[in-house]
Amino acid sequence: QVQLVESGGGWVQAGGSLRLSCAASRRTFGDYAMAWFRQSPGKEREFVAAIYSSGGRIYYSESAKGRFTISRDNAASNTVHMEMNNLKPEDTGVYYCGYYQGDWKIELVTTTPYESWGQGTQVTVSS
User: Fold this and answer.
1) Counting beta carbons within 10 angstroms of the beta carbon of residue 83, is it exposed (0 to 12), middle (13 to 18) or buried (19 or more)?
2) Whose C-alpha in 19, 25, 109, 113 is 20 to 30 A from the C-alpha of 100?
3) What is the radius of gyration, based on Cα positions, of the chain?
């Protein structure tokens, strides 16, 4: 199973920016998806952004559109980044990176197909 390591979380004031990174433990072969989900206390893990290897297809939640950008690292195909701008207090939560290998699935905007998860990184946005 692929191990995922997230980094880049922290504390920021509203309107600020953070960059999250997720590195897979081994190079991925074949098609795969990597995504970011967010979980706040008492809430379910919710989709934020995803990228699918074939065609570089990218997906965002409505709240992330226009503010967050997910991308693959040019030098390391097993690493994805997410640039988060204009952060809001409601963006606060633990951000988890997910990975699955295989065909494109319409469910990739849900937790269902993801086989591996990172340990999570805390993002706190103060008002």
Assistant:
1) middle
2) 19
3) 14
Read off φ and ψ for residue 104, nearest 5 degrees: -60, 135
Q: What is the 3-state secondary structure (H, E, C) of 61-127?
A: CCCCCCCEEEEECCCCCCEEEEEECCCCHHHCEEEEEEEEECCCCHHHHCCCCCCEECCCEEEEEEC
Q: Residues 49-106: pLDDT tens digits? A: 999 998 889 999 999 999 999 999 877 778 999 999 999 999 999 999 999 999 999 9
> Cα 120–126–127 angle (5° rounding)?
145
